């Protein structure tokens, strides 16, 4: 059974940091890109960051220089380190697994709230 389980969300003041984790089953993790997306109230889900199996990364312009995605292949975990958080970063953050050209697998999400 494919599973993606996020953790690490919470409430933080503007300028603070949070680290999100996503524990994945091997079927979705091994050999595939992993990513983070977010959805703010009243808005569509948007791409945040992606990391390939080999460690290549890409980011949304809105988080470049503040967020860092990483993965630990030995235990099938992907991380999102979020620094210098802003109120506009408030959203539900989702972990996703990519198979081929599609983001096929999704976690349930973890809430991140940044107060001003």
Give a verbal description of the structure.
Strands 2, 4, 5, 6, 9, 10 and 11 form a seven-stranded mixed β-sheet that branches. The chain has a four-stranded antiparallel β-sheet with strand order 1-3-8-7. It is mainly beta and 116 residues long. The protein is globular and about 40 Å long.
Ordered list of secondary-structure elements with their pairings:
Elements: E1 4-7, E2 10-13, E3 18-24, H1 26-29, E4 34-39, E5 46-51, E6 57-59, E7 67-72, E8 77-82, E9 91-99, E10 102-106, E11 110-115
Parallel strand pairs: 2-11
Antiparallel strand pairs: 1-3, 3-8, 4-5, 4-9, 5-6, 7-8, 9-10, 9-11
Largest sheet: 7 strands, mixed
- Residues in helices, as a percent range: under 10%
Average predicted confidence as pLDDT:
95
> What's the count of strands?
11
Shape: globular
Q: Count of DSSP helices?
A: 1
Using only C-alpha atoms, the radius of gyration works out to 13 Å
Distance between the termini: 40 Å
Strand content: over 45%
Given the helix and strand composition, which structural class is it? Answer: mainly beta
Spans of 5+ residues with little confidence (pLDDT < 50)? none
Written as H for each helix and E for each strand, in order along the chain, the element string is EEEHEEEEEEEE
């Amino acid at each position: 059974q494919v599973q993606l389980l996020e953790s690490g969300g919470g409430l933080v003041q503007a300028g603070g940091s949070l680290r999100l984790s996503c524990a994945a089953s091997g079927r979705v993790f091994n050999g595939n890109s992993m990513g983070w997306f977010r959805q703010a109230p009243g808005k569509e889900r948007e791409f945040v960051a992606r990391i390939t199996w080999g460690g290549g990364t890409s980011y949304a312009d809105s988080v470049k220089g503040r967020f860092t995605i990483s993965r630990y292949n030995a235990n099938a975990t992907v991380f999102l380190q979020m620094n210098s958080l802003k109120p506009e970063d408030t959203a539900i953050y989702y972990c996703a697994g990519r198979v081929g050209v599609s983001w096929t697998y999704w976690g349930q999400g973890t809430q991140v709230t940044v107060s001003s």
